[in-house]
Amino acid sequence: MSFTYQDIAKMIDHSLLNPSLTVEQLEAGCRLALEYDTASVCILPYYLKRCTEILCDSNVRASTTIGFPHGCHTTAVKLAEAKQALSDGGEELDMVVNISAVLSENWRYVREDIRAVTDAVHQAGQKIKIIFENCYLNDEQKIALCEICGELRCDWVKTSTGYGTGGATIEDLILMRKNSPDYVQVKAAGGIRDLDTLLKMRTLGVTRCGATRTKDILEECKRRLARK
Q: Per residue in 159-168, pLDDT tens?
């Protein structure tokens, strides 16, 4: 498979979501994303405004989470989070579905929850990723979510938060790509720790991966390209 450094770097959303990260670590993480020219930094919500300041003259997008990690906030709270994130300069927001409502198959509630935040984000000219947390769902529920996200024209469907009982799997990524319209992209998260895994995801049609081991992945990418 042929690829350039930019092909790989622009697949990575550098994840800074561990609640134990200090300000010093958050600052360093943003600088690392700049140095390696990733697609985005997905950062703890309270630090998003500072993140946007660091990234302002770059092509690295500022992003954060909504309803993270369990998704069971009320729609009003998710909407308030989204509006705050947009005000703070967020360009891509990663929202967790209401997992309880999905497992209860209350599809009307699920659809309206996703719709409210998606509409607000799109009205602001920004993009949204919808996190399913697949480790708790059956295939029928995953497919229903893909269909809802397609109907609402969400920008990405995403496998996981990285904080559930499991992360991205090959089977789930194939299922999500197959059941999503072409205009909905697929993001993998949870367990992407090396370049080979990321390259495998790429062959499945994945366009973004959440990663904490960004430096290791991209340094390996540079080494391989130098050997060609």
A: 999 999 999 9
pLDDT cut 90: percent of the chain above it:
98
pLDDT confidence tier of residue 175, bands split at 50, 70 and 90: very high
Structure tokens that stand for 32 in this block = 């690392």
Which positions are annotated as active-site residues?
94, 158, 187
What are residue 187's DSSP bridge partners? Answer: 158, 208
Which residues, 6+ apart, have CB-to-CB distance to 74 below 8 Å? none
Tell the CATH superfamily of the 5-227 domain. Aldolase class I (3.20.20.70)
Burial letters 78-111, b for 16+ CB under 10 A, else e: bbebbebbbebbbbbbbbbbbbebbeeeeeeebb
